[in-house]
Amino acid sequence: MSPFISIVIPFYGTADPVLLQRCLYSIRQQGMEEGSYEIIVADDNGKGLGGARNQGIRQATGTYLMFVDADDYLFQNLSYCFSYLLKYTPDICSFQMCEVNRAGVIPRSFNYKWEVYGSGAEYMSKNNFMGTAWRHFFSRSFLNIHGLVFAESCFHEDEDFVAKAYCLASTTLITDYPVYAYFRSSSSIIHERALQVRLKRLNDFQGMISRVRNLLCSLESDEKIIPMQVKALRRRLNFLTIDYIRQMRRNKCGVREINHRMSILKAEGLLPLSDEWYSWKYGLVYPVVNAYTRLFI
């Protein structure tokens, strides 16, 4: 009998084996029946986090698949979600995460919501969200049908993977039920501050945006264009472009460097930003970015 859930844990390089054991313990203490789940600890074969996750996808045999980073862990009662997965059979289910700084944290209990969307594009066209793979259950058959894989040997491989998944997904389930404990570790790759790493992160973010843009262009040129998918990706690209500009500031780029990177965005048609009122926060930011673009780019 195939397992219901495959749990993929990338583990490679300088990852902490103690934290990995904590992660594994949190899974094995879930009380799930033997054979109903499988754990895949995946090596990257020198291809980074995306390579390790792709290795896990290839090895997985479960109906659903989820990704857990080795320095994080799962809260108890994961199987509570399974009845909803069986009821709605979504291509994607997004759940809640809680940031923690130690083991044993228990999320506060309240009335959890379960919202069903007819498509992932419908959800993405109305909402901003964290583009992290570890915040989702994915139908394995859905990933295989569409050939969804992560970009390898780069940072920000989650963002375009998740955007493409939402774009192509049919039934999509969204809940605020807490599943994932995100452990803020100083050794995590997202907290590295070396100059070479910071520049690679910026360049990889630019590369990720280009991949999402290429997907949008391919959808727009398709004779069987689906307007909701185009609308959703356009919204997502505008938010990713803002995030990229924030990354430039956060990584202490000089004015000349910022202008150079923004000129590339402009050449690719990503600036100026859309004047759609996506949210009040977006409404505050886009006029400033567009004014700067007109004056200096």
Automatic annotation (TrEMBL):
GO molecular function: hexosyltransferase activity
Keywords of this entry: Transferase
Protein's UniProt keywords contain Membrane: no
Domain (Glycosyltransferase 2-like) ranges: 46-91
InterPro entries: Glyco_trans_2-like (IPR001173), Nucleotide-diphossugar_trans (IPR029044)
Name assigned to this protein: Glycosyltransferase family 2 protein
Pfam families: Glycos_transf_2
